[in-house]
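Posting here for the record, re: zinc ion.
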Amino acid sequence: MLTFFTDPYEDELLYGTISRYHYYIGNIDFKDTLREVFGKNSIIPSILLSSNLEYLSKQLGGRYYSDYFIKKHTIFPYYAPFLPIQRRNELVKKMKYGPGEGIYTQLGIVAGGLCKKEGIYYCPLCAKVEIQKYGEPYIHREHQLQGVLLCPHHGTTLKRYLIDKTNSSRIEFIRLDEEFLDLNISFRKKNKIYDNLYKISKAAYFLLKNDLFQFNKDVLAEKYKYILANKGFLTTSKRIRQKELYKAFVDFYGKEILEILESTIDVDNEYNWLKVISRNSKRTVHPIRHLLFIQFLVNDINEFFNVDEELYVPFGKGPWPCLNPVSDHYRKEIITDLEVTPDYKTRLPVGTFKCHCGFVYSRKGPDKNLENRYKIGRIKKFGHVWENKLRIYLQEGKYGLREVARLMKCDPKTIKKYDEKLGINYFNDTGSILNNSEKTSNMNKEIDIETYKKRIVETIKTNPHLSRTEIRSLCKKEYMYLYRHDKDWLYENLPKKKANYYTKNKKQFRVNWELRDLEILNKIKEQYNTLISCEDPVRITKSILGKNAGVLSMLEKKIDKLPKTKIFLNENLESVKEFQLRRCKKIIDKKFSQNEPVKLWEIQRIAGIRSRDFNNIKDKVIDYIERGIRH
Ligand SMILES: [Zn+2]
Ligand SMILES: [Zn+2]
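Prediction output follows.
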């Protein structure tokens, strides 16, 4: 295990983190560093995407999970939402367990790469700030993205670092050294092209910052088609009016920006990228072109990925809790790997949650409340952490079958299965008297469960109109037993729930408004807290909260479905008058805290309020001052 590590800065490329590690730990040979962090010295460190991350994570004692590195410190999220789900999973696996070869080709960086960048890029303004703040600059992942020519934070033109792989050893670790940086800031000419490039770089950054792993190529294709239809680009037979689309698209951007981003369109080519992207053909399309297309369609990438009813995520926002009862992180929200598939029969969404401890569970959705997040539908895999714990109990040899089952929080049948699977055969050894008695009791249990099931089935048969709850009250004992031991069977066989979350209209999943209300409320509160603590007061309005939280159109169109959010807004939005008053109060507070005299005219001047308006709030201001004096 590594006792020292350079913790990554925000959006730092993991490669850069390791370069700093190499520098600070004082290794002379790069191979020593490679061995320490990746377990072998034969790999060539990749700048943009890393591999063998699972090893690194272990070396760090689990302080960082490999998923965390992938999502927060590589450029992978730039590509992830546009890949077919299977390819994405393969790539994640490669990054976790290596080898790293082939990752670039599979992403299409080598073959279909656009606006290729050789070398390492940085923003002089970012670097300046970081030198002041941390004493060193670092390599940002957002500055390395193909097609990102400006810093998404500052709009400055990115600069190429003096040293890169073309003029140093392939396995050398390059870090940004203040000495070799050119900190002169430059901007492109401010015009439409600049605006577009800036917007694109911000959109690219959005992809890095938001966990969009619930999207993939097919989901997006559906979404594109839906919007194209709404915009009138589909014929009645659902074909795309390619000529109109082409014209509108080129009109929207102008040819020059498309040239800069190497994305011009040959209208006669059957496989020009606009046709490929709008038809969802097998080919994948570069993220920069997706970004161009998305901003053409909706103008705001935030809205495209977030405010979308059809694609609304049925299990709420991640990370999700691990429900492995014997892990040390039980119920902690650490799972980032969720796959949503429709149920074979009902088409309801089924979520499969995979944790790093090997525990995998699934649950039918959509979640109806936050409690649902802690429910297991089916355990798909117990994983190494669970198995190791069981192994210890079995080898200790001092517990009976049921005791072990209780300790492991599962049923005895599972224990026996794993006892055999792990090759310990403690309970499967017929010679032991203890085991024999356990065995009979286990057999009794099996008889019980079948009788119980039968009883429930019969009760339902004879009372076909009873609801779930009524069946439950008729067969309390059986219900509770099955609830604990075979919930899946129970739910499959009980009458269907009355509340119907799925309708047969064209929407995939209906929105779970209760959950959504909470999510939006949280986002809004977060923005509110930021705004209210701003040094320069900003008036709290619906539009600023909504815009900053990326939910404005929700607030405008669906507020009646969001009761909690609505109440919060009613209580906290400011009229002009209220805002003026708050500004005055803030100034008064400051005067008091600095023991300065408080003069009415001065308050008015600093707050910049016209006399007519000031007269309207004067009484309240005076009142506030007097209360302050009394304290
Ligand atoms: Zn910058
Ligand atoms: Zn876990």
